[in-house]
């Protein structure tokens, strides 16, 4: 958005600059001052964008440990002592940890230089923008209208969400575990959790059986992969331990009032940051749900802990229903569960062992074989096009690998457990396709093509099913047709 010279990108930059001028004006600046602030902010953000690693390469940045002294040498232009002290973790010499993890060393080094070269006033303009932009959704209708106009340009959004939805998302953001507890008590029977766990274990068994037959893996790497798979833990539905009572959390917030929405948002944000920093230097709780919530209609794999999180929100119709045919459940949420499991063995997840540590546990020949097979998937998705732009197969590779593995292992689990007839086999694939049905705005789809690690949903279905022989057999796709190519990609 910052660096491309195309007409479309120039239009987006102008809309962003106009938004900044409007919001600065609403925050109290004169028109001329608002334009100065916006220009300063844009200069800083453009420099930051130029220093950033491209999205498709950023996926492979794992981070490395830095002592505080090493950090000071890497980025001397940043006042680290003041920053650490400002967020409440003590000065450089009194931090409760001996090292920090830096994910993007080149960017941090460049940031240090940018902070020196830009000068204090431009940095102030940039920080003022971060403050105004971040809190605009919590301010008056004039701020919301300005954001709506910008989102219309970028995403095609033309109306504000209903007030009750805004209230829900705001409350869920501030007190997600409390909202989750109410949701689970109302909409998530224990049977759903038991069924999902049974499905996950069945899928893992099929994955394990598949690993044992992988002839492109040597015995050492194969055995370590099977150990990692067995170590992978599964958190389903919700946390096993809920937080303190709602009233106790309100007391921790302090100062929550019925007539000060903006102040309440600032208070809860501040509490969340302080609560997060309390964990600094303490033993990691690998099964902590963290940023995910039981209400999320999503699922996650965390490679740093080798764990899967399947929230109650996605174990609901139409993805899962204990009353519907199991073919639909396996084709939909079963493939999703298999997808998360496969993330542990995608192009990034494969580098982490069963304890969540990154180390070179793959032998060189197996790495080469993996990359050759993964390249087939990358090239396949790069061949797809929407709105004049090709899918970035390198950016979406991890998700495409996970979709492929998830489909395969959910399918094999379904066959192994239920021995379905032909109509149920077809229903499995229909459910998989319907999972990714969507109606999206053109502007939003174009934005996702540039920034999202997931392929467009259309190609998540076509690209994955076209490479899966059982689909072609079930629907009688002619050999050599679009949905049954002669040469297919095979990884997991």
Automatic annotation (TrEMBL):
GO MF: metal ion binding; metalloendopeptidase activity
InterPro entries the record matches: MetalloPept_cat_dom_sf, Peptidase_M13, Peptidase_M13_C, Peptidase_M13_N
UniProt KW Protease keyword: yes
Pfam families named in the record: Peptidase_M13 (PF01431), Peptidase_M13_N (PF05649)
Domain Peptidase M13 N-terminal: start-end pairs: 1-239
SUPFAM superfamilies per UniProt: Metalloproteases ('zincins'), catalytic domain
Peptidase M13 C-terminal domain segment(s): 298-491
GO terms classed as biological process: protein processing
Protein family (similarity comment): Belongs to the peptidase M13 family.
PANTHER family (UniProt xref): FI17812P1-RELATED, ZINC METALLOPROTEASE FAMILY M13 NEPRILYSIN-RELATED
Protein name stated in the entry: Peptidase M13 C-terminal domain-containing protein
Lineage: Eukaryota, Cryptophyceae, Pyrenomonadales, Geminigeraceae, Hanusia
């Amino acid at each position: 958005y910052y660096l491309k010279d195309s007409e479309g990108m120039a239009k987006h930059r102008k809309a962003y600059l106009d938004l900044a001028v409007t919001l600065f004006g609403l925050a109290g600046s004169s028109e001329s001052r608002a334009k100065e602030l916006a220009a300063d902010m844009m200069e800083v953000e453009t420099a930051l964008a130029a220093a950033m690693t491209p999205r498709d390469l950023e996926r492979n940045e794992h981070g490395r440990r830095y002592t505080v002294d090493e950090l000071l040498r890497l980025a001397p232009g940043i006042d680290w002592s003041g920053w650490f002290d400002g967020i409440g973790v003590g000065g450089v010499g009194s931090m409760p940890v001996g090292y920090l993890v830096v994910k993007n060393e080149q960017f941090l080094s460049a940031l240090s230089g940018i902070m020196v070269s830009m000068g204090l006033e431009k940095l102030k303009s940039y920080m003022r923008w971060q403050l105004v932009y971040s809190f605009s959704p919590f301010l008056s209708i004039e701020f919301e209208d300005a954001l709506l106009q910008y989102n219309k340009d970028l995403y095609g959004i033309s109306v504000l969400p209903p007030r009750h939805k805004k209230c829900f998302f705001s409350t869920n953001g501030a007190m997600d575990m409390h909202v989750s507890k109410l949701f689970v008590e109302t909409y998530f029977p224990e049977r759903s959790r038991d069924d999902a766990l049974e499905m996950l274990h069945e899928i893992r068994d099929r994955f394990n059986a598949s690993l044992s037959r992988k002839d492109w893996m040597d015995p050492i790497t194969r055995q370590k992969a099977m150990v990692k798979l067995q170590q992978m833990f599964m958190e389903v539905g919700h946390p096993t331990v809920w937080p303190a009572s709602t009233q106790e959390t309100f007391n921790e917030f302090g100062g929550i009032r019925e007539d000060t929405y903006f102040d309440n948002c600032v208070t809860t944000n501040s509490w969340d940051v302080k609560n997060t920093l309390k964990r600094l230097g303490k033993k990691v709780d690998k099964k902590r749900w963290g940023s995910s919530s039981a209400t999320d209609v999503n699922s996650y794999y965390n490679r740093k802990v080798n764990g899967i999180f399947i929230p109650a929100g996605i174990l609901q119709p139409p993805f899962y229903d204990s009353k519907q045919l199991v073919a639909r459940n396996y084709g939909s949420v079963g493939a999703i569960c298999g997808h998360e499991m496969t993330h542990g063995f995608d192009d990034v997840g494969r580098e982490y062992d069963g304890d969540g540590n990154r180390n070179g546990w793959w032998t060189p020949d197996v790495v080469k074989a993996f990359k050759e097979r993964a390249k087939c998937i990358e090239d396949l998705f790069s061949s797809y096009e929407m709105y004049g732009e090709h899918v970035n197969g390198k950016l979406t590779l991890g998700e495409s690998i996970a979709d492929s593995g998830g489909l395969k292992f959910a399918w094999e689990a379904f066959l192994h457990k239920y021995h379905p007839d032909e109509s149920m086999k077809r229903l499995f694939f229909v459910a998989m396709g319907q999972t990714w049905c969507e109606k999206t705005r053109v502007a939003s789809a174009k934005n996702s093509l540039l920034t999202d690690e997931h392929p467009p949903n259309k190609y998540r279905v076509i690209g994955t099913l076209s490479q899966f022989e059982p689909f072609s057999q079930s629907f009688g796709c002619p050999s050599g047709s679009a949905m049954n190519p002669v040469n297919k990609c095979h990884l997991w």
